[in-house]
């Protein structure tokens, strides 16, 4: 195996095993920053030794052993480190330290991964810091990879990660799964971070690309890990179902030129049937045992995505059901973006004249002033109401607000098409034809609320 192949092997092992290693080490040293430091030392050793010695038969065990030795060496030579371990109740005697350390690391690490998720997504951190730290420690992504994914300077990401670790240490955030009501709130934070990662992959906030599939894949991987660790949490399965059902459309929603393909005209034969099957199964697990019990927000959004997945063609979509699900979601979240999504569904079920007042009522809603999908949806409705001049102005406004180049191109194209001859056709079912698709409304977008910053 040459040097390049060995490096790729090291990177692959790291991507798979780093979260487990950091989680186990954090349990030992009580500090996520120190734990990653020791794990990184093991990674450097692998990069130095594997090219000449070869990749070991059990590479994960090799990394773990090296990390353990680094910690034991620190214990033996660093008095301050020993004092810190004593404070945490982790002090290990010189003679039996290795055996006790091995026993701790050989315990089931599922709980450690869950603890690490709760630490990375702790509310003492900013949203941006939670996302960066989660991708770094649980996703195994390098700083430059995170920076490329979110189109921000590498130094910015590095700073966020360093500050996050310092904040966790300063606040003495415990390495534990919280209990009671605090657990529910903290779990919501974990789900929110995973969904933010997915959203950035499914509909990029800025840049030249509409989608970044690698982020969707990472979010779904984290969702599956979380579902395995918390099998009784229905909203975890709801989020996983939502991501898999949306991700099933990734190949179809981008054209050969990289541009947007509206939901109404997507080639549904290109939708990933395996992801749809998996998403539907996760959706079933998200349902409460009593149908009269309310569903959580992620389960409701997944149910909406399932309605699209069940329709063989766009015209088969049961928009009345979709609108009803959005209404239930509005009542749960109170989100103005969800209400905008509901307006899109109402327009498809009952016509644009029924939806326009709902959209107009959102003009002064919190967070909507700079949200480009509000004028995009309004422009679509106005075009369908045969008011092309007003529609053009709305599409142009939406184009000015978006930071994604593909969306801007799509919106400007719609603005140029707003002439008397471009009023959308009506299908036999009374639903607007493909040219009037409200794709830039919620039906083919994942995020439930505007993103800050």
CATH class of one domain: Mainly Alpha
Determine the N-to-C terminus distance.
Answer: 46 Å
Please identify the structural class as seen in this structure: mainly alpha
Per DSSP E runs of 2 or more residues, the count of β-strands stands at 2
Q: Which fold name fills CATH's third level, the topology of one domain?
A: Serine Threonine Protein Phosphatase 5, Tetratricopeptide repeat
Order of adjacent strands in the largest pleated sheet:
1-2
Q: Determine the number of helices (DSSP H or I, runs of at least 4 residues).
A: 20
Overall mean pLDDT stands at 84
Secondary-structure element order, N to C: HHHHHHHHHHEHHHHHHHHHEH
Rg calculated over all Cα atoms: 25 Å
Estimated share of beta-strand residues? under 5%
- Annotated CATH architecture of one domain: Alpha Horseshoe
Protein name: RNA polymerase sigma factor (Sigma-70 family)
Organism: Nocardiopsis algeriensis
Family: Belongs to the sigma-70 factor family. ECF subfamily.
Keywords: Sigma factor, Transcription, Transcription regulation
Concise summary:
This protein is mainly α and 453 residues long. The chain is built from 20 helices and 2 strands. Helix 10 packs antiparallel against helix 11, helix 12 (234-247) runs antiparallel to helix 13 and helix 18 runs antiparallel to helix 19 (388-401).
Describe the structure.
This protein is mainly α. The chain has a domain at 310-444: Serine Threonine Protein Phosphatase 5, Tetratricopeptide repeat. The protein is built from 20 helices and 2 strands. It has a two-stranded parallel sheet with strand order 1-2. Helix 16 (336-350) runs antiparallel to helix 17 (352-360). The two termini are 46 Å apart. Residues 90-101, 103-109, 420-444 and 449-453 have low confidence and may be disordered.
